[in-house]
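Action item from last week, closing it out:
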Amino acid sequence: MTDTTLTPPTKVLAWDLPTRLFKWALVVTIAVAWASDKLGGGDPELHVLNGRIVLTLVVFRLLWGLVGGSTSRFAGFLAGPGTAVAYGLALIRGREGHYLGHNPLGGWMVMVLLALSGAMAVTGLFNADVDRMIIEGPLVKTVADATVTLAHKLHHKIFDVLLICIVLHVAAVAFHAVVKKERLVPAMVTGLKPAAAYVDAPRAAPGAVALALACLVAAAAIVWLGIRAAGG
C-alpha cells in the first residue's frame, strides 16, 4: 500500500522574485553610484543615468509595497514604534520572536534605506559641481544657483548617511547569521527560509510577476517622463 501521508515542507517561501530582484538591483546601483563618482576620476554620464535607475527602483518599491507579495507589503511588516522598541528589548534579552518577513526593526530599516536612496537620487537631479564642468543633473537648469549649491551639499551628506545605514544593515544581517543562526542572505537569494513557527505568517504569498512588471513600467514612466515634464 502506498503511503499517502504528506511530508511537511522543510522550506517555505519568504520573499517573492520581484522583491529579491529589487533588493539586489538596488545593491548594484548603489555600488555603481559610488564607483562612478569615486573611481578613476568618475564617470559623470553613468552616474547621472544610474541616479535615474535608483529613483526608478525606489518608486517601484513604493508601488510594490502596496500591491506586492505578503512579506513585501508595507502593511505586512511596518510596525508601530512601541512594537519596534519592544522587539529591540526582547532581542537584547534573547527572547525575540522569529519573523518570516522583516522583523519590526528590520522593517523600519527598509524604509530608512528607501528614503535615503530616494533622497539621494532626487537631490542628484539638481546637483552639479562648482564649475558645472564635470557633472550636471538633468534639472539643474530649472532652478536657481542657490538651489543647485544646496542640492550638491545634501547629495553628498545623504550618501554619507546612507553608507552608515548600509553598514548597520550589514552588521545586523551578520549578527543574525552568527549569533542567531538565521541566514538571511541565502533567503534573499533563493526566497526560501526553513519552515518554522514564525510570528507573522507560516509562509509568504507571492506577488504576481505581471503586476511587478506593471509597477516597474509605471515607475519608469513616472521618473523619466516626470523629469522631462519638469524641463530635464
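Closing note: The helical segments are 17-38, 44-67, 74-77, 81-93, 104-125, 145-178, 184-190, 209-229.
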